Amino acid sequence: QVQLVESGGGLVQPGGSLRLSCAASGSIFSINRMGWYRQAPGKQREWVARIFWSGSTNYADSVKGRFTVSRDNAKNTGYLQMNSLKPEDTAVYYCVANALATGSVQWNDYWGQGTQVTVSS
Predict the structure, then answer these.
(1) CB of 100 within 8 A of CB of 30?
(2) What pLDDT sits at residue 1?
(3) Residues contacting 62, CB < 8 A, separation 6+
(4) Which of 7, 22, 35, 82 could join 95 via S-S bond, C-beta 3.0 to 4.6 A?
(5) pLDDT in tens, 21-61
């Protein structure tokens, strides 16, 4: 199976920066893409950004120009660099990897446990 472990969340002041990491481990044969979602209290989970392992990226309008998604293929790890953070960015952030496990013929989505990001003065 494939496991995702997130790290890097925390408390930051408005205008500050954080970098989230999402490390995939286990029986990974290949990763197609990694996405980031967030869920604020009382709100639905929303898509933030994604990166294909080929390198192409997409961003939600709300974070475009402030967030940057990247990956380290050798480490099976994705990153979400968040700059110019705003209070409305406060949420639990989740990563999801679309991956093929060793011995499997089906690509599946694997989710991380989530990490809290709080933007407050």
Answers:
(1) yes
(2) 86
(3) 88
(4) 22
(5) 999 999 999 999 999 999 999 999 999 999 998 899 999 99
Report which DSSP code applies to 87.
G
Q: In a 10 Å sphere around its CB, with 0-12 CB exposed, 13-18 middle and 19+ buried, how is residue 72 labelled?
A: exposed
The tokens for 103 are 């011995």
State how beta strands 10-12 and 115-119 pair. Answer: parallel
- Name 98's Cβ contacts closer than 8 Å, sequence gap at least 6: 31, 32, 33, 34, 35, 107, 108, 109
Q: HSE, CB side, 13 Å, CA atoms: give it for residue 48.
A: 27
Sign of CA dihedral 92, 37, 33, 29: positive
Q: C-alpha angle 60/65/69, rounded to 5°?
A: 65
**Are residues 71 and 97 in contact, defined by beta-carbon separation less than 8 angstroms?**
no
Rg (alpha carbons) of the chain, rounded to whole number: 14
Express as a percent the part of the chain with pLDDT over 70: 100
